[in-house]
Every structure is written in structure tokens, then in C-alpha cells.
Amino acid sequence: MTSLTRRILPLLLCALSISTIAQTQDTGISIPNMDPAVRPGDDFYLYANGGFIARTKLPPDRASIGVFSNLSDLSFKQVASIIEDAEKATAPAGSNERKIGDLYHSYMDEAAIESHGLTALKPHLAQIAAIHTQRELAHALGLTLRADVDALNNTNFHTANIFGLWVAPSFNDPEHYAPYLLQGGIQLPDRDYYLADSHSMKDVRAKYKVHVAAMFRLAGLSDPEARAMRVLSFETAIAKQQISLADSENIHKANNPWHASDFNTKAPGLDWPEFFRAAGLEKQDTFIVWQPTAITGEAALINSQSIDGWKDLLSYHLIEAYASSTSKALADERFAFFGTTLSGATQQRPRDFRGDVLVSATLGDAVGQIYVKRFFSPEAKAQAEAIVANLITAFHARLENIIWMAPATKKEAITKLGTLKVSIGYPDHWRSYTGYEVKPDNLFANLWEASLFDYHYSLSRIGKPVDRTEWCMTPQTVNAVNLPLDNGLNFPAAILQPPFFDPKAPAAHNYGAIGTVIGHEISHTFDSEGAAFDSMGRVRNWWTPEDLAHFEAVTATLAAQYDTYAPFPDLHIKGRQTLGESIADVAGLAAAYDAFHASLKGSAAPKVDSFTGDQQFFIAFGQNWGSVTRDAALRQQVLSDPHAPGQYRALTVRNEDGWYTAFDVQPTDKLYLAPKDRVRIW
User: Fold this and answer.
1) CATH code, domain carrying 510
2) Which of 43, 88, 104, 173 is deepest in the core (most CB within 10 A)?
3) Rounded to two decimals, what is the model's pTM?
């Protein structure tokens, strides 16, 4: 995952789940999860995970079950113990512990939500209803602008606004934070949900219109069906202006500095001075516009769409954003569409679990400080750091031995690797929540204030020196991230647990499981996005034309390989959309394989049952991606996620020579690739 930002696995709240990952012994690969009847060279994913898939039945509150969700559930059980203790404690007012307990209590107090949730929402709806002029509309849009560290995790910024703000190190001055303006304004996961002509997408749109009408009705607004029709039409108009996720990942096309005075001429329609004034950005001179054609197209909708249509759009997005804090009826309706229709789960997770998720997301560092003290030992940190060091050494050797790269390009690549900052477990310092007031009996107010608190925090960083020790993830997050603008990596404590990492497991397992994840993140430094940044985090082309042409040709081959994968007859993987993650999978697997062998120091790896060390390594990698997913959730992932589904990520082994030797893969096997067709990048 790169943090512009992208995830190893999309974190859908309805998809977090408990799965039983049986092990062959206390630690190591899981033989019961395998299917020995499948030939590895025909379907390595089923070979590694067929047993698990065959016996796993999705309960009604799960859209997916797999290794990531299993570990996420463990993390949330750990978080639950922290929150339970905080709620029971008599911590002083204003302390982090008190805020944790009070926020959780406000989520669990359903009677309080019912008594004043809708009452709290209505004044904000009344403000929208009072809009009569384009200037007032621009002011309202500015007031609803929000910022998010995960703004680029998806193609769209899902807020009540048509734009989103991301504050990060500048493309052109990586020593200081800059504001990035992003496309947004649609609620469905991706523009294809509005524009694709397939039967499945038409069905989703029909159900979405019914859902929007239901949300208006439950919020007490008149003419819900007519409003819903206008919202769907309006969001479709917005979707037509947006660019795809694949196009959004072209960093050079994203680097568009606009002065505030440029907006009226480059994106006419919106009263930009009033928009920026309401957003608290009236003194900001320069923005980086990530998707300029989308910003121009969306601003033009100010004139082409009626003000009443805008009011319907803003009202619906507001209702949707605060449904969980307004009424049970609204929250249930929201889940019925986004949880059931889009993801396939028919039942919500237990309320206490959802409360734990909300608290952990809202007060992440406050929970994280306690989390690492309880659940992440100094010994685990030290051993994880040793694996990282071995992976970096392996990657350095691979860079040194590349024959296609010119000396000048290779020198810069090695310099970039040498300046890579790797953080394990948790950040060097914690975010303060001073100024964020939490009420034990008012969830709506807590969420509203949290949104403003985060936004003002982001605004406060603009123009200031970059803190390269800051994390964009919490320690309790099961994930990992590459930060190309910081030239850094973060590996949270929660992912450094079994089955990904276990100090007691054989090296073959640890390097095949967490080692490939670490290698994946290191290699993002040089993927189709990371390669656009130099060692200082600047957007700069440090490649010779010949090197860049070679890189683009090889990665195009990898994209074409993924284009052939089709989870449904009418839907293929988009190889260019998933290219950055696929490059990282290929390179990370290769580097982890080298590091595993280096760790043996010439000795043979011990066998587990009949499996050699190399076989264990590749099986562990394949089992990283074992999962069972509902069709609706799988479709959503293919359309809107920069990662290929797990069953195809496991097939990365097709490009690694060692896999062919380990499992005696022959030209007659279905996954066989001739040596000349295997993708080798780093």
C-alpha cells in the first residue's frame, strides 16, 4: 500500500471477521487450510487455501473472511479490552482515557441517539434549505470541505462536498505541507457504478435510488422519490466529470499547482473566493489540483444544475454521513444498501464491535498508546526490525545487480533506498486530542466535532515543515504503508502478530508471510507511482529515457497478465488500475525470497512435514491471501480498489523462478509461464 494512500486489503467494516486459521503446529504454515488434490502449477491459490475455502461458511454479518480479517478481529478484541477499561475507569475529565470511554458510551447509548440525533441534524438541513444564491451555495460548499489522511485511498472523496482536501508534503517542496484539492461528491464506490451499462450496475443504481428516497423519508424531508431521482441524476453528472482510479495514479499528471486566482479562469462556475473563505483557506495562495479536468467539470455544474438540485445533493450526503448518530432507522437503512446491496452482508456486526471500530478510528493515537504498551513487546519490535533490515539488504543487492538500468539511474535508486525511513510498531510521538471535546451522551455532536477537529488539524499544518516521523496509520491497524512523499514505511504493531509474524515460526514462514508484506512496501518505493519521486520526496524524473521505456514496457506486460484474470464472465481485473500493487507484489516476493535464503547463512531450512523450506515460503505467501468473499463485495473491489483480489495476488508466484523449482511446475501446468514471459522488474 502506498499512501497516496492505498491499502493491502480494503477495510470494509462489514467485512471484518473472525476466521479459524488452523496451523500444522503451534506456528508456521497451515496444512489443514491447503488442498493437496490441487496441483500447485494449475491453481496455486486453491492449493494453498482450498481446505480453508471449502470449510468456511460466511455468516450473515460478513462480506468476507480471510487472514487479514482474522487478524483485524484479534486487534479489535485487544482494542475492546482497552475501551472497556477506559469506560469503567474514573479518569479525569479531558484525559485521553476519559475521551475513549465517553465516546464509546455515546455510541452505545441508543436511547440518547434516538432522543436528540435527528433534532441535532435538522438545523444543518435547515441551513442547506436556506440557500438561494450561487454565492450562498459556494459558502455552503466551503463549509462542508473536509480533509482526510486517506483521501487518495479511493478515486473519490466521500463527503457532502464535491471536492476534498488532502494536506501532505508538497510534490514540489517536500519539506513543507501543501493542500491538494481532489475530486469527490459521489456516494457509490466508483464512477463505473453510475456509468457502466452492465445489468449488475443498472440493478445497483435502481436500488440506490430507492435507498436515497428512504433516507430522505426517514429524515423527514418532503418528496423523497423526486429528490432521490435528482440526486442520482446529479451524482451521475459528477461521475461523468471524474477521472478513473488508474488515471488518478499518474503522479506527473496530478502535479498541477494552481494559484487561488487561477480557479475562476481554469474552473469557472463556482464562486471560488467565497468557497475558500468559508473553508478557512482564504489566505492560501497555491493548491495542487490532483484531477484538474474533474475540478473544472464539477465546478461547471454550479451553472448547469439547479440550486434546488444542489440542495438535495448536500442534504442527502449530510444525512448519509451522520446516519449512525441520527437514528436507528437511518443507520439500518444505510447498512441495508452499503452493507447488503454493495457488499452482500445481511446482518451488521454487533453494536459493541462497531463502537470499538468507531472509537479506534476517531481517537486512534489515544487508543494506540495503550495498545502498544499492552500488546507489542520490545522483543517483537527488535525481531521485526531485523527482518526489515534483511529485506532492505536483499533489495539493495537486487538493485546493484540490475543490468538494464543506467549507472546514473541506479545510483539514484540506491540513494533512495538508503534514505528510506522505516518505522516499526508505532510512531515516535503521539497526536494530541486537546481541544476535542467528547460528550458521553451525544454521538452526533462527538462525530461532528471530530470531523471539524481533524479538518482544522490539517489546515494548521499547511506551509509548516514536514514531520517525517508522523504516521498516517494507528498501531492497532492491520496494514502497512509506503509514504513516497516522506520516503518512509510504517508497519503497525497489529500486523506484526501471527499468522503474519511470529518469533517462534520457522524463517520460511515469517519471510513468506510478513517478509513478502515488508518487501511489498519497500518495493512501492520504485513502483509505477513511487518511481516518480526522488530520494527527497520530490516529483522528479530521475530516469534516463531508455530506463523509463524499459520499466514501462515490463510493467505493461504485468498489467496485461492481470487483464486476463476474470472473477466474473462480465468483469475482468483492470491491470493498469492494479499495476502499482502488482509491481510491489512481484518485487516484494522476489526480495523476500532472497532475504529468506540469506537468513539461512548456507544452512538448509528445516522441513515441516514433507515441505521444504522453499515450499513453506511460497505456501505462506499464498496463504496471506486466503479468503472467502461475497460476489457483491468482490465486484466492488474489482471496480474501485487498486489491489487485485487475493486469489490473483497469490498467483504472483508465476513470475518467480524459485516457485517453479520448488513445486516442479511444468509447461503443461495451467499457470506455467515460459522464462521469457515471467515479469522481472527489480
Assistant:
1) 3.40.390.10
2) 104
3) 0.89
